[in-house]
Amino acid sequence: MTVPLIELRDIYKTREGRDILKRISLRVSRGEVLALIGPTGAGKTTLLRIINLLDRPDGGELLFNGTDTASSDKFRLESRRRMAFVLQKPVVFNSSVYDNIACGLKWRGIDRHQITTRVNDMLEMVGMTDYCKRNARTLSGGEMQRIAVARAVATNPELLLLDEPTANLDPVSAIKIEETLTGIIRQNAVTVIMATHDMAQGQRLAERIGVLADGELVQTGTPGEIFTRPGNRDIAEFVGMENLLEGVIASCEGEMALIDVNGTMIEAVTDCNVGEEVSVGIRPENVTIALSRLSSSARNCLPGTITWAVSSGPLCRVEIDCGFPLVALVTKRSAEEMGLEKGIKVYATFKAVSLHVIRRR
Q1: pLDDT at 1
Q2: Which contiguous run of DSSP H or E holds residue 8?
Q3: Chain-centre distance for alpha carbon 62
Q4: Spatial distance between the Cα atoms of 51 and 45, rounded to a whole number of angstroms
Q5: From 60, 110, 345, 356, which residue has the greatest number of CB atoms within 10 Å?
């Protein structure tokens, strides 16, 4: 078995009698990009600080490249030097942009010529070559964050930790930071663990996602698994699965089940048993709207009335009363062609396999 770069075994942390992290176990492979998502206060920053060896857990083990970081202070220091941490609020020194990026290299005793080459490469990578001599504290928030990223990457870390890297930035600056990070990940093949509450950002940047809730790592998986097959109702709500219906399994035939949702029957694929109470998740983009009943392979085609329709960019969000509220996303062009507006009678169609059934415990 390949040794992971980072391995957490039953890590827990308490503060003032409260559990901040609860028995977190996690393996991160070399070269992997992992996003930790979760609401504010879920424990994301605390976990990053423990991984970066800034804080010590109250229990459990943290292994770096297969060795326990608590084995000796010397190994702990050596491990920290192989990591870099970019904070949510960028920290820059009262000096030039060049000196800000170069500081970590100088502390490591790197040759001056190598420092110049490396800093220039970093300036080009983050698109700030012309800012070389500017005082870093005169820059905008987005520019400071790019400098903080460049300073971290300049040291060639094996592990790059990012704490909400775009949380305090305007949309244009956030896009530039994401573009910078994407370039760094592709060019350097660095291992990245990032914390974010922006689910879309986690999908764009990471190949695996871990969901933290109330100090627990409640689910890990690919972005597709997390966003289309959330492990419980709380995760489903957090990742934006707007259509969450409460129902009861009315009948089963193999893996195909009829679910009673407020008196309306819908079909879904599930291993739940008759009588079980469930939540049914349907992503809005998986709902098709038509003005008449469609002839298709989809097992669910429900009549309903539009209660609200609003456009946002190229898409239109349509709310339908089908005996229960249902949200669909269609293109703005389709909405205009069908004349979708409040009061219009429509049919909402969705496949049984596109539904995600969650047991209610």
Answers
A1: 66
A2: strand 6-15
A3: 23
A4: 10
A5: 356
Reduce the secondary structure of 46-69 to three states and give it as a string. Answer: HHHHHHCCCCCCCEEEEEECCEEC
Q: What DSSP designation does 274 have? A: T
Phi/psi-derived region of residue 34, left when phi > 0, alpha when psi is between -120 and 50, beta in every other case:
beta
**CB contact at 8 A, 33 and 208:** yes
Structure tokens at 174: 């956030």
pLDDT at residue 318, rounded to an integer? 96
CA atoms within 13 A on the CB side of 173: 15
For 67-88, give one letter per residue: b (16+ CB within 10 A) or e.
eebeeeeeebeebbeebbbbbb
Smallest Cα–Cα separation from 335: which of 324, 320, 323? 320
Is residue 250's pLDDT more than 90? yes
For the residues 248-268, what does the mean pLDDT come to? 93
